[in-house]
Amino acid sequence: MNQNRLGSKISEYRQNKGMTQEELAGRIGVTPQALSKWERGQSLPDVSLLADLCQILGCGADYLLGIETVKIAENNDEKSQDEIRTNLRDCLEPLELAFGKNLVTVFMDESYVQQIVQVRKNLSAEGILMPLVRVGDDMNLEAEEFRILSYRRELFRGTPPQGTDCICNYMMEILEKTVRENYAKILNRDIVKEMVQNLQKRYPVLISETVPKVFSYGFLTDVLKRFVAGGNSCLYLVKVIEIMDDTLREKGSVAAEEMAEVLEERLFQ
User: Fold this and answer.
1) C-beta pairs of 245-253 under 8 Å, 24+ apart in sequence
2) Disulfide engineering: 256 pairs with which of 117, 204, 222, 263, CB 3.0-4.6 Å?
3) Kind of pairing, strands 153-158 and 96-99?
4) Cβ-contact 64, 57 below 8 angstroms
5) For residue 146, which phi and psi values (nearest 5 degrees)?
6) Is 150 in contact with 95 (CB distance < 8 Å)?
7) Please, are residues 146 and 103 in contact by the beta-carbon 8 Å criterion?
8) Above 60 in pLDDT, residue 1?
9) Is the pLDDT reported for residue 4 higher than 90?
10) pLDDT score recorded for residue 57
């Protein structure tokens, strides 16, 4: 295994995700110093961390380790193949923040990252797990314009009002509001799986006996999309899972739309 290549890939993907070394290190449970050594090719991550590392960075372990066997570029150039695979993975992001040329300076340093993290914390208190935000400029936008997208669907487009004291703060407020109001469109199976696995730490019996044993992450996601679209919250996810389990044991088979209606009826009884 080429340590330098692995380190450069970790660094590249981390920066593409708009994360600092401290943030990535915190998410996988290591020190920033350890992560720094990986990126400089001075040491290797423990094999037990690879799954979480790949999930957070949005890449496959084979790609990160440089062991792909299928060539997808005629010239067999590794850099070209890496770029193609990255483009394919990133073509549909759960959440993007794009901005015009005059707003680029807002994101020149990494101070905005902590503001995004604060948005994430605010939303988590409401049962909302916000996916990683892909941040980048878009020259098709007006100079002062920015927009928020989910899977290339535009959720918001606008410009900061004249005289705004802190443009970054304003954009983060819009991001938080947009995610909250459009969460049903943003939710996907990976987000739901991460929320469920987090619940398992506190409710191990309930989770291990239901998801995905009784119903799949796909079915749970379909139900939650309908439930949230009706103005409800994922804050009570553990109760949602319990009610879904009880309902399926009673009725055997229930469509996602009907299950969402059952949740509406039973959740607050």
Assistant:
1) 245/206, 245/209, 245/210, 245/214, 245/215, 248/214, 248/215, 249/214
2) 222
3) unpaired
4) yes
5) -140, 160
6) yes
7) yes
8) no
9) no
10) 84
* pTM of the predicted structure, to 2 decimals: 0.71
> Can you count the helices (H) and strands (E) in the chain?
14, 4
Q: How far apart are CA 27 and CA 71, in angstroms?
A: 32
Q: How far, in Å, CA of 174 to CA of 165, rounded?
A: 15
pLDDT at 65: 78
Residue 17 per-residue DSSP state: T
Alpha carbons 267 and 197: distance in angstroms, whole number:
21
C-alpha 125/C-alpha 84 separation (Å) is: 37
Q: Residue for token digits 């900061």?
A: 160
Token code pair at residue 241: 């899972």
User: Which of 121, 258, 209, 225 has its CA nearest to residue 238?
Assistant: 209
Residue keyed to tokens 């001075």: 42
d(CA 224, CA 230): 10
Q: Quick one: CA torsion of 140, 142, 143, 146, rounded to 10 degrees? A: -90
Both structure tokens of 120: 């994430």
Does residue 189 contact residue 217 with C-beta atoms inside 8 Å?
yes
- Give CA–CA dist 98/96, Å, rounded: 6
